[in-house]
Amino acid sequence: NGLREPIQHFRTIFICGDFNIDLLNPNKLKQIDEFINTAYSLSLYPTITKPTRVTSHCATLIDNILTNNIENNIISGLLVNDITDHLPIFIIYDDNYRNNNPGNSIRYRRIRTVNTTNAFKNKLIRQTWE
């Protein structure tokens, strides 16, 4: 619900991270279908299409950047390295304009405290992992 307002006001949105949802095999689990359907219902589309985690026995696409920007002014991809088992993802966005009214923008910031970290851990513990 928190995303509907910025989307309705035609704001460009990028959501990135390790979703732990393999988009290379979308038909394996109901949760994957629900994730994809929810993203599409919010007009959010994945920008990464190649595997982001490759091992000797499998390749998965679990890290991604979702956006509602479907124009050709973005470049996204993977940085190939051997530092971690996940390949870093990136996106470059050319907004082509200057915002002359900086008071018009909305900024979201994650506040990390001991309390918020513990609350997050408690939610994870209470989650049903099937």
What percent of residues adopt helix (DSSP H or I)? 10-25%
Task: Give the ordered list of helices and strands.
Answer: HEHEEEEEEH
Classify the beta-strand content into a percent band.
15-25%
Largest sheet: 3 strands, antiparallel
* N-to-C span: 25 Å
Overall spatial form: globular
What does this structure look like?
By secondary structure, the chain is of the alpha+beta class. It has one domain (4-99). Helix content is 23%, strand content 20%. The protein is built from three helices and seven strands. Strand 3 (53-54) and strand 4 (59-60) form a beta hairpin. The radius of gyration is 17 Å and the shape is globular. The chain starts with a helix and ends with a helix. The mean pLDDT is 83. Keywords: ATP-binding, Endonuclease, Helicase, Hydrolase, Nuclease, Nucleotide-binding. This is Helentron 4 helitron-like transposon replicase/helicase/endonuclease. InterPro entries: Endo/exonu/phosph_ase_sf.
